[in-house]
Each structure stands twice: as structure tokens, then as C-alpha cells.
Amino acid sequence: MESKISILITCLIFATAFHLLLPASEASLKVGYYKSKCKRAESIVKSTVGTYVKKNPGLGAGLIRMYFHDCFVRGCDASVLLDPTQANPQPEKLAIPNFPSLRGFEVIDAAKAEVEKECKGVVSCADIIALAARDASYILGNISYKIPTGRLDGRVSNSAEALQNLPPSFFNLTQLEASFATKGLSTSDMVALSGAHSIGRSHCSSFTSRLYPTIDSTMNQTFGASLIKLCPDPNNAINDGVVPQDFVTQDKLDVQYYKNVESLTALFFSDWSLLTSTETRKQVDTYTKEPETFKQDFINAMVKMGNIEVLTGPPGEVRGPTCRFVN
Cα–chain-centroid distance for residue 158? Predict the structure, then answer.
């Protein structure tokens, strides 16, 4: 009897120790976190996102991008939502990678306002971003998945950190792999998440280095010539133009992006770089032939990204009544 009790105690100690060794995200986040705390939270976010994105699909692309930009800086803590204040005049949202291109803030504002009416001070802004990206993925790509929730909101936001952590459009494959690896994401995750370039739009300044003074050999020359008509030489341009990231199915989150990569008709140098290794080129080719494989890999990578450095305890908080300011 004593031996059995001793074994049981040993097992319990081991299980407890293993739990403590888990990252906070894995130990604390769970699917359906708000089921008992705020039953309608997820449906409210879904309804709000649907209302906005069906009117303007570009906002859906913005929400997915917002999720990426939030999670890559200080983890998924809604730091990207914080407005400038006298104490913090340069938050993330004013950083070059985010301003003025990042969209969808009004959707988050609306969703937060609705959940606050339902359950005051319960649903974090970080979770609203994660849920909104999931719901936008379904509307634009029929990509359906469950994502764990339970994140808390951060209290720090610094534009310099956005520049340091967000991979720019001119990165080569080695640089991209290193950037994603620092966030615990694999090369395969990176290729799958790049599929979000199938939606949304880009400022010309993100790729005009591939057009001027001559069209880069890594770009289809006819495609490049068509872009020159839309994007003047930045040395002479008055305004920074905007074009779709995918001219074929610009409002659909699909595998057309990977077809564009293969035909050298994707906008960014980072897109072309996916062809520069046997591993990534093969993954791109697989997705063009197997859309369902892309969908599943995209889902896995989106959920995995949602676990980056999340706050599940102090100094995290649930912001209220707005996501734009700390409590």
C-alpha cells in the first residue's frame, strides 16, 4: 500500500513539475476560455468582423496582418493597438511598418465596445485580435479553426521595437528564417504564413527598389512594366501609391499567391526568396497543387503564432473600456 502511495506521489510531483516547465501560453491558454466567463464573446467578435469585412474585404486582410504585427513585437499582447500619449508619444502603431498601412483598428474598437457591453472588463484586446484574424481568415478563405484564448494585454508599446522585430519586404530567405526562428516559428510556418500576401494591398515603396532604375531579374518583366505604370519612380513621386498584393484574386485568401511566386509576379523580394531553397520551393509548389494542405498548414502556423510570448499574468491586464489605452 505504501509503495503504491509513494508511486502516486512521485507521479503527481512529476506531472506538476512538467506543467510548470510548460510555456505560460501552453499552460494557460485554452480553446473556449470565455465559455464560462463571457459566453457570447467569440460570437460577438465574429459578428462584428463579419459586418465590417463583408463591406470591405481589405479590412479582413488588415486584421490578419495586425495579428502578425502584434505577435511579432512583445508577443500577442495588443501592444500594437495603443495610441500615442504624452508619456509614450511613439507607440508601435506609429512605426514605419505599421503607419499608415496597418488597417482594421476600427473593427477592434467596435468588437471591444460590444463585448464590454456584454461582459465588462473580461475579454482582452489581445484575444480580440486573435479571434478577429481567425474570423477574417474564414470570411476571405473559408479557413475555419479554433484558437486558444486567455491572453492578457500588455502595458508597453515602442515603435523602435516594431522596426527591430518585423521582417521587411526586402529580406532574403536566410534573414526571414532567422526572424521567424526568434519567435519559435519554423521555415515551414513562415512559408505558410506568407500565404496571407494573397490578400490586402501594398504601398509602392515596399517594392519599387525592384522596378527602378531597371526591373529586377527576379521579377517577371511584363508584370514589372505594368507596375511601373502604377508606381512612379520614388525619386520623382509625390505620393506613395497603393496596389493589390495579388492582382488575380485580391479578396480571396487562397493559393494564388504561391502561383504568383512561381511565375515571378509577386510584389516583394521576400516573396521571390521562397524560391531560393529546395525546401521552400517544394513547399510553394505543393501549395499550388494542394490547396487543402495550405489551409491546414496556415491554420497550424496561425495557432502557433498566437502562442508567442503571451501574457497570462502580471504585468498583463484586461484593458477597458477601450483597447487604445492602458488602464
Answer: 18
Q: CB-hemisphere CA count at 13 Å for 141?
A: 31
Strand partners, 194: none
What whole-number distance in Å separates Cα of residue 216 and Cα of residue 269?
10
Mean pLDDT of 113-122: 98
- Which listed residue (19, 69, 197, 203) is catalytic? 69
∠ CA 310-312-314, nearest 5°, is 110
Q: Nearest-CA neighbor of 61 among 190, 201, 189, 169?
A: 201
What is the pLDDT at residue 21? 37
Cα–Cα distance, 298 to 191 (Å, whole number): 9
At 199-216, the pLDDT tens digits run: 999 999 999 999 999 999
How many alpha carbons lie under 13 Å from residue 205 in its C-beta half-sphere? Answer: 13
DSSP letter string, 263-314: TT--S-HHHHGGGSSHHHHHHHHHHHH-HHHHHHHHHHHHHHHTTTT-B-ST
Is residue 258 over pLDDT 80?
A: yes
Q: pTM of the prediction?
A: 0.91
Grid cell 509602392 in the structure block, residue: 204
Amino acid present at 261: V
69 flagged as catalytic: yes
On whether the CB atoms of residues 289 and 282 are closer than 8 A, the answer is no
Supply angle C-alpha 251, 244, 125, rounded to 5.
65
* Distances, alpha carbon 259 to alpha carbons 275, 284, 315, in Å: 12, 8, 44
Q: How many CB atoms lie within 10 A of CB 243?
A: 17
Decide: 90 and 76 in contact? Cβ < 8 Å: no
